[in-house]
Amino acid sequence: MPTILVADDDANIRELVCLFLRNDGFETVEASDGKEALSVFALKHIDLVVLDIMMPIMDGWTLCKELRRVNADLPLLMLTARGETWEKVKGFELGADDYLTKPFDPLELTVRVRALLKRYRIGATQSIQFGNIMLDRQTYKVMRGTESLSLPLKEFELLYKLAGTPGQVYTREQLIEQIWGIDYAGDDRTIDVHIKRLRERFATTPDFRIETVRGLGYRLEVPL
């Protein structure tokens, strides 16, 4: 379970952010300023940091710079009460990955957190192998033994997503959000169409099967 460090001098903001993150399945730890955040970071394994810019003792700019210095691959999401372009530019230049301006919708924050974690996981692991199947996300190549297969982009990303966590159930809404994006305006039944095509392409492949979980969504199973 990913652990999120929330650094903000406003106790109410920390409480709200942590509540929504925990409800979304994350563990959370808190810090009220940048210096405390660095101390917490040194003691615990942290998967992502949500940090406010305007904090006492050590502000978000300095914290961002220090965190990026010790861990170049740590996802950083900045919060600020202002929305000036120069602040966003400065944040990105210091290493922030994403930005939210207060007041913000906590649900949007959790979506952005999930998206950042997904992006960093993909960056760290570019290939998946199960049975005789190998998926390479860097080249979007699919190998079945020595046979090279070509899949349309969305079919590849859907298969890659399901294969990344065998046995985990994904709803149509989750798959649409994570593959087509939160702004996708089409019918979520497009997932059914792509699942059908994948099943047809791999109908004779015993290395995996995509199962329908009635009332929930889909999962990929790899036979033992």
Task: Please explain how this structure is put together.
A hairpin with a 2-residue loop joins strand 6 (127-130) and strand 7. The protein has 8 helices and 12 strands. The two termini are 25 Å apart. It is an alpha/beta fold and 224 residues long. It folds into 2 domains: 3-123, Response regulator (Rossmann fold, 3-Layer(aba) Sandwich); 153-221, Winged helix-like DNA-binding domain superfamily/Winged helix DNA-binding domain (Arc Repressor Mutant, subunit A), CATH 1.10.10.10. Helices cover 43% and strands 23% of the residues. Strands 2-1-3-4-5 form a 5-stranded parallel β-sheet, with helices on both faces. Strands 6-7-8-9 form a 4-stranded antiparallel β-sheet, with helices on one face. The model has no long low-confidence stretch (mean pLDDT 86). The relative contact order is 0.09.
Provide the helix percentage.
Answer: 40-55%
Q: Output the strand order for the largest sheet.
A: 2-1-3-4-5
Rounded radius of gyration (Å)? 20 Å
Number of strand elements: 12
Output the number of helix runs.
8
CATH topology of the largest domain: Rossmann fold
The biggest beta sheet, please?
A: 5 strands, parallel
Structural class: alpha/beta
CATH H-level superfamily of the largest domain: Response regulator
> How far apart lie the N and C ends?
25 Å
Overall 3D form = elongated
Number of domains: 2
Which quaternary structure do these chains form?
Answer: single chain
CATH architecture heading of the largest domain: 3-Layer(aba) Sandwich
Output the CATH class name of the largest domain: Alpha Beta
Name the beta content range: 15-25%
Q: Which residues form runs of ≥5 with pLDDT under 50?
A: none
User: What is the helix/strand order?
Assistant: EHEHEHEHEHEEEEHEHHEE
Overall average pLDDT: 86
